[in-house]
Write a structure and sequence with these properties.
single chain; about 375 residues; alpha/beta; Rossmann fold; four-stranded parallel β-sheet; three-stranded antiparallel β-sheet; 17 helices; about 45% helix; glycosyltransferase activity; EC 2.4.-.-
Length: about 375
């Protein structure tokens, strides 16, 4: 999503600047610097060598090189307390500040942006999950997230929400702190990748399902592992795509104990084309998530014409309507029945036809809404 914003705003008629927090302070990129960094993020140019400052302060080699290039192409740099002065010196008066990543929403940054000459501050909020489901978070995350929302309420001229459901849930939290800022709902664009080659070792002739997303407690991987254990040796394949997250030691231990020749496989680090190929040839996407602010995987699967079985979540219904099969996350019988039906093809044709009618939201529509008000 942040990359979509970078690509789109780079082609607008107004100049684009970027504010980046690094280990050693704040970096401001001008339009030329933004273009250089964007080319490296896209892979069109390689990242440069780590400079001395990065070698002294960072252990991660990739971050060393990225922060070094940020300094090389910087229009200006400063310590956080000098941010307002730096922005006032280098940016046009009345600039618009867009924050779309839940990061840098500190009181210091937001005040400095305003004092530095911002005419308008817009923030995109993805969900209220840390406050509604603190049991799925690392210690302290819920409190930290509440602070972010409080600062957004106090400083933002516009809050952008990815779904009406997210807006309702976040504003239910915000209203306890005072007046609500103006808001806009703009669905995120869905751009399914062009399918490439299947990952090595996948037998396309054997029925299999895909689950896609970070392996964290709210995503429901534990339910799927239980179902596959219950189905036993005759179970179809289950391909688990996504990086390992947090607070999920029991699931990680079960994944580590999977037999190499079993039906369940964990495949991290796949590129978009490989994931699209896996989805396109699968019996369907399984999405037993317990909470979502938007839910891109079901939308990407539906855009490819792939059957979707999902927990019954308002954000998914908001965009996909009646295309998926919706199930209670806790009803194992329903999940087993849906998996069996799709494996044997009883529901595949009906769901695929429904999916063919899905017109996914576009980034063009998203930006037409957002930029009109920012």
């Amino acid at each position: 999503m942040e990359l979509a914003y970078l690509r789109h705003l780079s082609h607008e008629s107004v100049p684009l600047f970027a504010l980046v927090r690094t280990t050693l302070g704040c970096v401001l990129l001008g339009p030329d610097g933004v273009a250089e960094i964007a080319a490296r993020i896209d892979g069109r140019l390689p990242w440069g060598r780590a400079d001395l400052l990065s070698r002294l302060t960072r252990r991660d080699g990739a971050v060393r090189r990225a922060e070094s290039d940020l300094r090389r192409f910087a229009l200006a740099r400063c310590r956080p307390k000098r941010l307002a002065a730096m922005l006032a010196r280098h940016l046009p008066e009345g600039f618009a500040y867009l924050n779309v990543g839940h990061s840098n929403l500190t009181a210091l940054t937001l005040r400095a942006v305003r004092q530095g000459g911002a005419g308008r501050i817009a923030v995109l909020i993805h969900d209220a999950i840390p406050l509604e489901f603190p049991q799925y978070q690392r210690p302290g995350v819920a409190e930290e997230f509440a602070g972010r929302l409080q600062r957004v309420r106090a400083h933002a001229d516009l809050v952008i929400y990815n779904s009406a459901d997210t807006r309702a849930r976040v504003e239910a939290q915000m209203q306890a702190w005072g007046l609500l800022p103006p808001a806009l709902v703009a669905h995120l664009g869905v751009e399914p990748a062009v399918p490439g080659a299947l990952p090595t070792g996948i037998d396309a002739e054997r029925p299999y399902f895909v689950v896609l997303g970070t392996i964290e407690p709210r995503k429901g991987h534990d339910l799927l592992l239980d179902l596959w254990e219950e189905m036993g040796p005759q179970a179809p394949g289950l391909i688990i795509c996504g990086a390992r997250g947090w607070n999920n030691a029991a699931v990680f231990a079960r994944l580590d104990a999977l037999p190499a020749d079993g039906p369940v496989r964990e495949m991290a680090g796949l590129d978009d084309a490989q994931i699209a190929a896996l989805l396109q040839r699968s019996c369907g996407l399984l999405f037993p998530s317990r909470a979502e602010g938007y839910g891109l995987p079901p939308m990407e699967a539906a855009a490819l014409g792939v059957p979707v079985v999902s927990s019954d979540l308002p954000a998914i219904r908001e965009v996909l309507g009646n295309i998926p099969v919706y199930l209670k996350e806790s009803d194992r019988y329903q999940w087993l029945s849906a998996i069996e039906s799709l494996k044997t093809g009883h529901k595949t044709q009906q769901l695929t036809v429904s999916g063919a009618d899905f017109i996914p939201p576009t980034w063009e529509d998203h930006f037409n809404l957002v930029l009109r008000l920012t």
